[in-house]
Design brief:
208 residues, 6 helices, 6-stranded antiparallel β-barrel
């Protein structure tokens, strides 16, 4: 995470909302001197301030047999290269803007009876974001096929202990330079979701 305080102003709630809205990240688990990493979707349980998630039965993290372990959940947001020319100001250097959230905590194996609930809540959340069709429901699958699908995954809960976010959006640049850079970033092919990144850059000005 970038150490500059200008990029670390987002509150815990803001970072968690961003993580929940993204809904996908990297679960990093230390094991015997290595770091096991899995890419996976997750669902924030607002009542318990925990993430529900699941892993494939043959996933390396599952294969460790760990029932409870420390872990970090990494959520990568939009990011992109910023050319010095885009600031339209002298004596600037190149940089890379980005939004990222790291959540540290404990991953706990859940009872398999929790699996259907976890899958149903996760699916319901993302189906509601899909336009143009009726939401798919896990209840639409008959018990026998559903049992076969459930046998392939393992339920876990991520208990949140610490939340860190870096929103590196050129906050150290004057507003005019920031707007100039955002206009170029928006149409840049170098990065991920650069339009959203440009919107975040513009948003920092309204927050000042």
């Amino acid at each position: 995470m970038h150490p500059h305080p200008a990029f670390r102003q987002a509150t815990r709630d803001t970072n968690l909302r961003f993580a929940a809205q993204t809904g996908f990240g990297m679960l990093c688990v230390p094991f015997e001197g290595e770091t096991l990493v899995s890419h996976l979707p997750f669902h924030l349980n607002p009542e318990s301030d925990e993430f529900d998630l699941h892993l494939a039965q043959n996933n390396a993290i599952v294969s460790t047999g760990l029932v409870k372990t420390t872990a970090t959940l990494v959520i990568q947001g939009p990011h992109g290269y910023v050319s010095p020319d885009w600031y339209q100001a002298p004596h600037q250097g190149p940089t890379w803007n980005y939004v990222a959230v790291h959540i540290k905590g404990t991953v706990v194996l859940q009872d398999r009876q929790e699996l259907r609930r976890i899958v149903s809540e996760l699916t319901t959340e993302f189906e509601m974001r899909v336009n143009g069709k009726s939401p798919w429901r896990s209840e639409d699958i008959k018990d026998k096929p559903m049992d076969g699908l459930m046998a392939q995954i393992v339920p876990y809960r991520f208990q949140i202990e610490a939340v860190e976010g870096t929103w590196k959006l050129d906050q150290t640049q004057p507003p005019e330079s920031r707007l100039n850079a955002a206009a170029a970033v928006e149409n840049s092919p170098t990065g991920l979701d650069t339009k959203a990144l440009a919107d975040f850059m513009r948003g920092t000005i309204s927050e000042e």
